[in-house]
Each structure stands twice: as structure tokens, then as C-alpha cells.
Specification:
Strand content: 15-25%
Oligomer: single chain
Shape: globular
CATH superfamily of the largest domain: Malonyl-Coenzyme A Acyl Carrier Protein, domain 2
Helix content: 40-55%
Structural class: alpha/beta
Length: about 350
């Protein structure tokens, strides 16, 4: 049996190719989907299983009020299908909204409470996008950190602030910076950051229908969450759970109030560092493999870069990672067909 660190993806993971992810699932996965549909129906919103069947429409599938629970349900359904005879889950973490998913997956919240948290936070984004986010590369071709690119990002943020606008690191995503800014600041960042062509994508890349998550612009959402969601069933996780600061909440001994306060306050308005989360979880949990939940494979690139930058598994370069993946994979994704087959019961 292999020890697995499981990582839950963020809200933007459900894409056109994810349609149908919730159909024809196992009984264990269907139980999760049924619970999520019940949460949506109780709030008079379209069930996630119905959204998953509909033809792709950005306003339906990308908007936060739908994408949040849609993404989380796919992730939790994948976890329900993980073969526990071959993989022992020794730790959990998540990227951005994936932190909420990890709360339910780890048992730090009862599943229905976790689904309610996710859907509620997503619903508050309806017609309420605050600022925006953009994505920008900050690593070299071999996936090592590039301090010069990071300095370029810092200089662009400083210029925006000097002009009287808001800009911040939103997510430290391995080899990419996710920056959050107010509307004017976002325009300045898009103009100030040097263009980088990478295949079919050109950076900086604005993320559609995203607020400036994990920045002070989300203070109104933080205040609303503290008022409305503090009474959920917060409790210690059943497996180690590592947050966006790199702090691990331990089974039995974690303070439920600390979990609540981090979730509803700190991470809403402060930078979420996926690299710190994964680095700490690797050190604390000593996994044999890292498992990325679906939908899709949005975490594949970031996690590969984080593994290289951490040196875990003896990986130091992109070439090291690719050779190890070909011989004995250490990163497995539910979003990749052959790897999925190796993960499910």
C-alpha cells in the first residue's frame, strides 16, 4: 500500500472537457453527488448533476455561484472512488477553494457542512465580482524558481500601489503567480507585466469571472462569512490537513476555533501559498505519491513544479521529474485516463 498526499483543486478547474464528470459514477461517488444536489435544491439553485449534463456555457459553468460546488463535487466524488486497498490517505491540502473541499474530505467539517460552505461562498460571488485575478509565470524552463521574474512581479505590484490602486499576490501557485487587484490595478498589471508566450497561451492571462480572492478586497466577504458560517460543525480533521500558510492541523489535537478562524477570516483576505502547503505536507506526511483530484488536471503542472522546487523524491529538475514519471510515477491525477485507472477501486 502506498502513502498518498491528496490535493484538491480550486474553483477554475471545471472546464468544457469536464462535462459529464458526474455521470455514471460508482455508488460511493453518487452519494456525494446526491448530497451536493440536495444542498443546491434546498437553496433553489440548479443541481450540480444537472449543470454537469448541460451543454457548455461560460455563464453557467465558470461563474462562481455554480463552478464552486460543481468543482468540489467532482473532487469529492473522485476521492470516494480512490482504491483504499492500494492507497492510504496520509494528508490533505487544497488550492484556494480546494481548501474548503479538503475540510470535508479530511472530516474537519461534516460533509454536508462542507458542501454548504462551498456553495454559500460561491453564491456570494453572483453579480458581486470584486476586482480580478491574473496568472503570470515565475519559474525557469527547468521549473526552478526564477527570482528575476519574481522581482518583475513585485515591481509591477509596487507601481500599481504607487498609483493609488490595489494589487497583491493572491496565490503562490508553484511556478506561477496569481495576482489579485482592483479593476484599475488589474488593467495596470496587464499593461506593465512583460508578455510571455507559452504555447497557445500568452501571459499575463486574466482569469474570467474571478474576484481578487485572498486579498484585502475580499474583506466584505470575510465579514459576511464570519457572521453566517461560524456555527458550522468545526472539528479536528481525521487526517493531517495543511493550509495555505503551510500549517498542518493534526487529528485529535487541532483547535476547531483555529480552523474556523483561518477558513473564514485569514485565507479569505491573505495570500494562499500552495507551494508552502505542499512543501509542509510532504515533510509532515512523508507520502509515496501525490494524488491530484479532478475535475481535469489543472494541478498537474503546479504540483510538478512544486515537487521539483522542493527536491522531494530526489527531484531537482524538470528532466528528473519526467524521467521519474516515466519509470515510477510519483504524481497521479484523476484527470488523466491511464493514471485514473491506477487510482480507482
Amino acid at each position: 500500500m502506498k502513502r498518498a498526499l491528496v490535493v484538491c483543486p480550486g474553483r477554475g478547474s471545471y472546464e468544457r472537457g469536464s462535462l459529464g464528470s458526474l455521470q455514471d459514477r460508482s455508488p460511493a461517488a453518487r452519494a456525494v453527488i446526491t448530497d451536493a444536489d440536495a444542498i443546491r435544491s434546498a437553496a433553489d439553485r440548479v443541481p450540480v448533476s444537472e449543470l454537469d449534463r448541460r451543454p457548455w456555457r461560460s455563464l453557467d459553468h465558470v461563474a462562481g455561484e455554480n463552478a464552486s460546488l460543481l468543482t468540489a463535487t467532482c473532487s469529492l466524488a473522485d476521492l470516494a472512488d480512490l482504491d483504499r486497498d492500494r492507497y492510504a490517505v496520509v494528508g490533505l491540502c487544497g488550492n484556494s477553494m480546494g481548501w474548503y473541499t479538503a475540510l470535508g474530505a479530511s472530516g474537519a467539517l461534516p460533509m454536508l457542512d462542507a458542501l454548504d460552505l462551498i456553495d454559500t461562498m460561491g453564491a456570494w460571488q453572483a453579480d458581486n465580482v470584486l476586482g480580478g485575478q491574473l496568472l503570470y509565470p515565475v519559474c525557469r524552463d527547468d521549473w526552478s524558481r526564477d527570482p528575476e521574474k519574481e522581482e518583475v512581479v513585485e515591481a509591477a505590484i509596487a507601481r500599481v500601489r504607487e498609483a493609488g490602486h490595489g494589487a497583491w499576490w493572491s496565490i503562490r501557485l508553484g511556478g506561477h503567480a496569481v495576482l489579485g487587484a482592483d479593476d484599475a490595478g488589474l488593467k495596470m498589471l496587464l499593461a506593465a507585466l512583460p508578455k510571455i508566450d507559452a504555447g497557445a497561451r500568452t501571459f499575463p492571462l486574466q482569469l474570467p469571472l474571478h474576484s481578487a480572492f485572498h486579498t484585502p478586497l475580499l474583506a466584505p466577504t470575510r465579514d459576511r462569512a464570519v457572521e453566517a458560517l461560524a456555527d458550522l460543525g468545526w472539528r479536528p480533521p481525521e487526517v493531517p490537513l495543511t493550509d495555505g500558510r503551510g500549517y498542518t492541523f493534526r487529528p485529535f489535537s487541532a483547535d476547531p476555533r483555529a480552523l474556523r478562524d483561518y477558513t473564514l477570516d485569514h485565507q479569505v483576505v491573505e495570500t494562499f501559498d500552495l507551494g508552502a502547503a505542499v512543501h509542509s505536507a510532504l515533510a509532515f506526511c512523508a507520502p509515496d505519491v501525490v494524488v491530484a483530484l479532478g475535475p481535469g488536471n489543472p494541478l498537474g503542472g503546479p504540483l510538478a513544479r512544486i515537487l521539483v522546487q522542493s527536491g522531494y523524491f530526489g527531484l531537482r529538475t524538470r528532466a528528473d521529474f519526467e524521467a521519474r514519471q516515466a519509470a515510477d510515477p510519483v504524481l497521479l491525477s484523476f484527470g488523466l485516463g491511464p493514471q485514473r485507472a491506477a487510482l480507482v477501486a
